[in-house]
Each structure stands twice: as C-alpha cells, then as structure tokens.
Design goal:
Strand order of the largest sheet: 2-1-3-4-5-6
Distance between the termini: 128 Å
Helix content: 40-55%
Number of strands: 14
Structural class: alpha/beta
Order of helices and strands: HEHHEHHEHEHEHEHEHEHEHEHEEEEHHH
Radius of gyration: 28 Å
Largest sheet: 6 strands, parallel
C-alpha cells in the first residue's frame, strides 16, 4: 500500500511538471509571435489629429454651390474627330490570352492592367480603321488567341470586334510579308508584351521581317531605366512608346537612342460610363457602416503600392468616433496572392495594440465581376493610392472617370494627367532608393533607381482634408472627371496613336521616294 501511494505521488508530480512545462512553452511561443507581429508593422503612436492642424492644407477655394449635375451624367462629348489619312497598315502584337484570361480566372484578381491597356488600344483602332488595323496574340503560333480565356467577361460587342480584328491581323501579317505591286502603304508592327526580349518575340513572327517600322510599348515605375533593357530597346525596334513625358525623360536619360514617343493610356468608355454606375455600399463594402465616408484603394499587394503607409496614416489619423472606413481591394498578381488577408491581419493587430474600442474601420473588398467594376469605384467617396510610383495608374483614371476624387502622390507617370486642381495630392518632398527586392530588372543599376518617398504625415493630411471637406472633395471629383473624359478616353488616345502611324507612314514613303529618285539618277 505504501509503495502504491508513493508511485501515485510520483505520477502526480510528473504530471504537474509536464503541465507546468507546457504552460511555460505556450507562454514563450505566444510572446515571440506577438513580438514578431508588432515589429512587422510599425505602430504610429498618438491620438488622431484635429482639424485646425491642417488648415494650411486647403488647396481649393470652396465652391459657391453644389455642382449642377450628378455623377451619373457624363460630360458633354465633342463631335466625332476627323480620322487621319490611312496610308498605313498596322499589326498590334500583344498578350491578351495570357494576362487577361489568367487574371480573371483567379478569385483574388481583377483583370490584368496589361491586357486592359492592350484592349483599350485595339478596340477603338479596330472600330476606326477596320481595313488598316489588326492584332495577333503574342507567343508561339500554336498557343495564340485561345478565345475561351479572353471570352469570360468581355462585352459581347467587344468580343465580336476582337475576333474580326484578329482575322484582319492575319491578313495584314501576310500582306506585309509578301507585298503586292503598287502597294505603297507603310507596314508597321507594334510589339506590346510583358518581357523586353524583343528578338525572341520577333522570332515568333518572322513575317514581320519585311515590315517597315517596329514599335514597342514600354513603361517602368522608377526614376531610371533598367540597364538590362537598354540593349534590346536600342537594337530591335525603331521606336518606343511610353505613356508619359516623365518616362520619356527616364528612357532617354537611360541611354535609349531610338525614337521615344509619348502616347498615353485610354480608359474603357463603355465600362466607365457614369450612367451605368450603381452605387451599392452594402454589397461592395460590407465591413463599413452605411453612413461611413469610404476611402477605397484598389491595387496589387506589393511594396510599391504603399499600402503599409496608407494603413499607418489611416489608423493614426482617425478613430472609431469618426464615421469613416478604409476599404482594401488588393489584387495578388505575384507570390503575395494571399496578401489581402495578411493586410487585414496586420491592421487588426495594430488596432488591438492601440485600443480596440476606439479604432477606425478597415475592411477588405471582394473581387467583383468586370461589369460591376465602375459601380465599385463609384460607391466610394474617395479613391486613395499611396503609391511610390506608377507607369500610368489605370485605376486612378478609372476612378476619375466616374467622378470620384483621387488622393495620389504627384510623382512619376501620373503627372501626365494629374494636377493639384483635379486631385487631392499627397505631397512628395523627396525621393528614396528603391529596394532591390522590387524587381530583378534593376539589379545591375540599383543605385540609379529612386521613387517617391511616402511620408505618413502627408498621407494623413490628405485623408483628413477630404474627410473634413466633402463638398470641396466632390468638386475635385467633377473636375477630374471632366479632364479625363476630354483627354483620356480610349477613343482619343487611339486617335493619337493613329496620327503617329500617319506621321511614320509619311516619313517611310518620303524615304522610298528619295531612294527611288536616287536609283533613277544613278541609272
């Protein structure tokens, strides 16, 4: 009996020891995890600012009255423009199958901006010049234009037009390779794709060897040209198109010796028609309250987009007492495809550290079908993007098209279409070096690459100004809408492209005439 009691005592002692060890182990692991989460995201101390602190930030005079029209009334459009002389045939080679199709198949993504840009060039050019313009899918011939991937969410009229235009592209490709007698047209090929290995892409289209002029479409988001691009851009194409004057300077300073032409990027006028916008906050922003002033951001979840600075600014500037909500829609087009969830996880932890019963609302936004994209944007009070740099900024222009004011740093490609009068700018005081993790392309000249340094305090100023001045912010939205509908519809940008094709054709034909006269003189 004594031995059994002693044995039971030993077992109980061991159990107590094991339980104590287990509790201690859980405590240590929890402490390490909490410390890691805390240091992963800088916490901004301090209470939300008051209105008087930012009185000097008033950029605009208050309007005398509310705008006479509503955001569902599109700006008045001018008569159809006069089309340039069609002395050219153009083949546009791009990747719609790969980028658009893959994007919309992934639950966490809207359509890829690369494919949207291509479509917004191709469709209006096909409409304006059905006999002189066509397109082909980039890549090996056995994988070009798989229509089941592009077909999923495009407008029916766009689908039909793209099919016809694709057929026309085949004819232009054949005609440019085997010129008929008397065909004095200039044959031009535009190579627009994600990689910059132009020689490799041109091998997929050996027929273009007989074309007169090769153009490539290119852009980057920093202050320098990737060194690895320089040779290709000076070797294969005759001309490079960039979307902004800012990038023209970057490319020329980076050693590009070919012609660099500025052709902006147009937005989809059918998709972004203000009359089709149907605001529905309950549907698009279920994590926000009905009376909240909603700041919306739509972007890829990468460091360049500055979502961490935006979160820091929003959480530091507002409290739960403010009727305000930050709605995140982050497209994961990289290894961080699940970053949408991680963002809110980190944000919620920051809120917990401050005071969970006084924090502002932060919510995620689910992917919406492309036909509802404009309604998503139009349901917000303000669109905000604390980006370090943009080549263009498609979602910024789309938001402006539906009269939503935008908060954006005025640096980089956005300066082509944004001014302080039609935006609520995030002031950029200086630039900073780009981290090498941003892109492998910058590895060989990393020290030359800079982008906008985003200061959290400046983001706070812009957020607070919009929240405290909703009438003035609304007026900014209307001015922005008028500006982009006047200059940046896909039809107007396509016309700029067509005018450039005409200039190229005249140059080529003048050279032909000069060469012909020279041959006759020699004979």
């Amino acid at each position: 009996m004594v031995a059994r009691a002693s044995e039971n005592t030993s077992v109980a002692y061991i159990r107590v020891k094991l339980l104590t060890f287990l509790v201690l182990w859980i405590f240590i692991v929890s402490t390490i995890f909490i410390t890691w989460q805390y240091t992963a995201f800088e916490v901004i101390e301090g209470e939300p600012t008051n209105k008087s602190k930012y009185e000097d930030f008033l950029l605009l005079d208050p309007p005398a009255k509310e705008p006479d029209r509503s955001p569902t009334q599109p700006p008045v459009q001018e008569e159809a423009p006069t089309l340039p002389q069609q002395n050219w045939n153009v083949l546009w080679v791009t990747s719609i199958r790969a980028s658009y199709g893959q994007a919309i198949k992934k639950e966490n993504q809207q359509s890829a901006g690369f494919a949207e840009e291509a479509i917004n060039f191709i469709i209006p050019l096909c409409q304006m010049f059905p006999r002189n313009f066509g397109w082909q899918e980039e890549g090996p011939k056995d994988s070009r234009f798989l229509q089941d991937t592009i077909w999923l969410e495009l407008d029916v009229q766009d689908k039909e037009l793209l099919l016809r235009c694709n057929k026309r592209g085949e004819k232009i490709l054949a005609a440019g390779n085997d010129r008929k007698s008397g065909d004095n047209s200039a044959y031009i090929v535009m190579i627009q794709f994600m990689l910059h290995d132009l020689k490799k892409e041109l091998k997929n289209y050996p027929e273009t060897a007989n074309f007169d002029w090769i153009i490539t479409r290119s852009m980057f988001e920093t202050s320098a040209l990737p060194k690895v691009w320089k040779k290709d851009l000076n070797d294969s194409p005759n001309e490079i198109w960039v979307p902004s004057t800012f990038l023209k300077g970057v490319y020329e300073a980076g050693g590009v010796e070919r012609v660099v032409t500025v052709i902006g990027e147009g937005f989809n006028t059918l998709q972004m028609d203000p009359a089709l916008v149907k605001p529905n906050r309950g549907k698009f922003f279920p994590g926000c309250r009905a009376d909240d002033y909603v700041f919306l951001t739509v972007s890829k979840s990468e460091e360049r987009k500055g979502y961490d600075h935006l979160l820091d600014a929003f959480i530091a500037e507002f409290s739960q007492e403010d009727a305000v909500c930050l709605a995140f829609r982050c497209n994961g087009l990289s290894k961080k495809i699940q970053q949408n969830k991680n963002i809110i996880g980190k944000a919620n932890y920051k809120l917990f550290l401050r005071n969970s019963n006084k924090v502002p609302r932060v919510a995620t936004v689910a992917r919406v079908p492309e036909p509802e994209y404009s309604s998503l944007l139009g349901s917000a009070n303000v669109f905000v993007l604390a980006t370090h740099g943009e080549g263009w900024g498609r979602t910024i222009v789309d938001s402006m098209a539906v009269a939503v004011p935008v908060i954006v740093p005025l640096w980089g490609g956005v300066t082509e279409y944004l001014t302080p009068n039609i935006s609520i700018p995030i002031i950029v005081k200086e630039t900073e070096k780009v981290p090498k993790s941003f892109s492998l392309a910058i590895k060989k000249n990393l020290d030359q690459h800079h982008w906008a340094k985003i200061e959290v305090d400046e983001v706070r100023k812009s957020l607070r100004w919009a929240y405290d001045h909703p009438v003035e912010a609304r007026q900014v939205g209307f001015r922005g809408q008028e500006s982009v509908w006047e200059k940046w519809t896909r039809e107007s940008v396509a016309l700029s492209a067509a005018n450039r094709f005409t200039e190229i054709a005249k140059m080529i034909q003048a050279k032909r005439a000069k060469d012909s006269n020279s041959e006759q003189g020699n004979s």
